[in-house]
Amino acid sequence: xxxxxxxxxxxxxxxxxxxxxxxxxxxxxxxxxxxxxxxxxxxxxxxxxxxxxxxxxxxxxxxxxxxxxxxxxxxxxxxxxxxxxxxxxxxxxxxxxxxxxxxxxxxxxxxxxxxxxxxxxxxxxxxxxxxxxxxxxxxxxxxxxxxxxxxxxxxxxxxxxxxxxxxxxxxxxxxxxxxxxxxxxxxxxxxxxxxxxxxxxxxxxxxxxxxxxxxxxxxxxxxxxxxxxxxxxxxxxxxxxxxxxxxxxxxxxxxxxxxxxxxxxxxxxxxxxxxxxxxxxxxxxxxxxxxxxxxxxxxxxxxxxxxxxxxxxxxxxxxxxxxx
Amino acid sequence: xxxxxxxxxxxxxxxxxxxxxxxxxxxxxxxxxxxxxxxxxxxxxxxxxxxxxxxxxxxxxxxxxxxxxxxxxxxxxxxxxxxxxxxxxxxxxxx
Lengths: 324, 95
Prior knowledge:
A: alpha+beta, 3 helices, 21 strands, B: alpha+beta, 4-stranded antiparallel sheet, 9 strands, 12% helix, disordered N terminus
């Protein structure tokens, strides 16, 4: 969600702007008494701000808005793009990594967002963060007085694919007319698979801040580390047992997969049919037996061969001082 | 010795462009736990919430929760929920 602490409505109190996985930006307005309950940010017509994909609370399902560009907004920050004294919106898209801006034609105290999402460009082309964008951040990275764009990337979190990145897009435009150059890599793709956690590999959420007060910007980065702990040396008997357990686990998982294949799918399957099939599946003896077998087999196998780990941490990347 | 340290710093650098280079990353701690532990996609932000000129560390997550850790010397204190004006943990709406 990547919260942004900013005076969104220009009332002198800090507010919190962010987007959640429901596909829309939200704001918690601050006051002298503290933060108010978060509310959805609406455009000038009172319509929920979004890209195409969103969670439809009324229908309780994922939905598409064909009038908006393809994408799923899961991150948002405000930024006075055109330097007219009020905040415009930047919306990050989860899957394709694109970034959009929505202009504010109102005022600082009374936002009036247009409802029109305009692609943000990177070196003249639509910006696209490899592996999906976690969050945009505006920061004067190179100290030239213009706000540059810092973006994190998800990378592939569940398979062997490439990990997440952090990049900066330097602003080569001018005040009120930002123009972002090509991505410069600050943190390269996570490689995953070391013996211990050494860095965030996927889901990299960056914050640029002078952490140590030495006058330059460091990075604080949240994300997942992926590693595979080194196992102990197994005896001959243990190796044989591990082989047997691996085969048993594979067979049990295949059995479960076959049961799942009985769940109706495709456009003809109604939600009721699918829910009923899942209910029936979970109540069946075959499902219960195979699920328990997977759990007990995996538990014993993990004690012999430690499984891969994926855990969340927050990391500090301190800027290196190199000799001039 | 100095040149050896310099080489180590360069080797540990992660940046692949002249935009910046960094020392090898270190895990931050909050209380006696690693920061961001067991949070779904932790997203950090540093901001001085209480006006004491010392930024707090606020961690958001995919669920929509926010926690705050305050500076405790060179490390950070235990994370606590960021609360609304009514004293309830602030939670952003999610699906």
